[in-house]
Amino acid sequence: MINLFPHLGAETSLALEGFLHLIDRTFPLPRRYAGRTPRDIAELSRLFTSAQGERTETYLGKPGILSAYLRYFLPWNLYRLCRLLPGLSLPFEDGGAITDLGSGPLTLALALWISRPDLRSLRLEFRCIDRTAAVMRAGEKLFKALTGGECPWIIRLEKGSLERKDLPRGTDRPGVDKPPVRLAAAVNVFTELALNTAGRDGGRSRQFVEKSFKTLAAYSMEGGYILAVEPGNPQGGAFITGLRNALIESGGAVLAPCPHIQTCPFPSGKTILRGAGRTLGKGKWCHFTFDTEEAPAALRKLSAQAGLPKERAVLSFLLARLGGQGQSVQACQTGTDLRLRVISDAFPLPAAAADTRDTLFGRYCCSEQGMVLLTGKKSALEKAAPGALLEAACKGNRRDPKTGALIAEI
User: Fold this and answer.
1) Torsion sign over Cα 296, 297, 303, 309
2) Other beta carbons less than 10 A from residue 410's beta carbon
3) Distance of alpha carbon 139 from alpha carbon 104, whole angstroms
4) Cβ atoms of residues 376 and 361 within 8 Å
5) What are phi and psi of 289, to 5 degrees?
6) Is 114 helix (H, G, I), strand (E, B) or coil?
7) Are the CB atoms for 5 and 384 separated by under 8 Å?
8) Res 4: pLDDT
9) For residue 271, how many C-alpha atoms fall within 13 Å in the half-sphere facing its CB?
């Protein structure tokens, strides 16, 4: 069983705890403003949700909003990435470069330093691009404080939109001052960009997704890698599915989280199966959820004070290689095992789907055969961590009457 979201190690947990104190030391709040932090966090959350139309492209340039972002949203984004990044096979090598699109306060570089101590001795160059210089400078200041100013990593900041023609691209010929860009990454970028440029549903449009894929791919070298991480909501999941489609059509190879290169069974908002003139189930979206018990206690306390307690963290993502050839897995046949990526939490099943009195729970999974309902005892199902890659036995061609998903047994 291979897990995508390994638990935090002791060193990473301590580093995340210490990072909260680092923020306060690096960006101390005047005493008269200290009590406003929970209120500012709640306001920024409103701008991310119900009041998205009020958010400007440079909203993080406002001091109060930036402070709230650094103290709440940045640490939670770091926690998500610190659970994700150690489980990915990333193409880092000495002397290589990473382009970080929409880098914000250097979230990716901070998360890599915290969660991947094996990379700290490598000479890496981070090319960070964002519309708001203030938020990048804040991130640079935090990064220097985190590393003590002695670090072989080079941080280069570029202010501007992702479409700027003068920004270095991954296809530029490498040289002494242009190390090869092995990875282009975008964390929480494109669904937010869709709101600013194409409206609430812009992230679902084929035109927007294909343009986003071309933008992301242009910042990585030929045969290089791309990583996109988005909020684990339906829009974020739909965008990631569309990005995956564009990648496969270009001849790229999907590396994670997909266990196959067939049609995505979690496209968000679409009907999965129709039969006898009725809809049997509506599409779910590809996202992963894990608990927040390992997040810093002070962060969980601040979240509760802001009226935004977090018991679960969620994200959608895609790691892929450009210009490669995706590989399929063997299709499931009666009596064989099926390779599954666990997507959902365990939930109780009705008797019709459970089939036996002992099999009372299920989890939705992704496979080459489409959506799979993995069934079994609750104790057995919960042993699989979110995002686990495992094999399970198919039970002929039995399908869940609610969603049309193929049924398998753990």
Assistant:
1) positive
2) 21
3) 7
4) yes
5) -125, 135
6) helix
7) no
8) 85
9) 7
Q: Domains (ranges, CATH) in the chain?
A: 10-321 (3.40.50.150), 337-409 (no CATH)
Q: Which two tokens stand for residue 150?
A: 């002695």
Query: Nearest to residue 226, comparing CAs of 238, 205, 212?
Result: 212
Place of tokens 């994670």: 256
**Tokens 């390779």 identify what position?**
339
Span 23-37, average pLDDT: 81
Kindly provide the b/e burial profile for residues 216-245, where b requires at least 16 CB atoms within 10 angstroms of the residue's own CB: bbbbbbeebbbbbbbbbbbbbbbbbbbbbb
Chain-centre distance for alpha carbon 258? 13
Q: How far apart are CA 218 and CA 180, in angstroms?
A: 13
CB atoms within 10 A of CB 318: 23
pLDDT digits over 353-402, tens only? 555 556 579 999 999 888 999 998 888 898 888 899 888 888 778 888 88
Looking up tokens 């343009």 gives 211
Find the Cα–Cα–Cα–Cα dihedral 45, 49, 55, 57, rounded to 10°: 90
Q: How far apart are CA 237 and CA 284, in angstroms?
A: 9
Query: Six-digit token pair at 81?
Result: 């990435």
Number of helices (H) and strands (E) in the chain: give both, helices first.
13, 16
Distance between CA atoms of residues 208 and 185, nearest Å: 17
Query: Contact 126/2 with Cβ under 8 angstroms?
Result: no
Tokens for 392, please give them: 């399970």
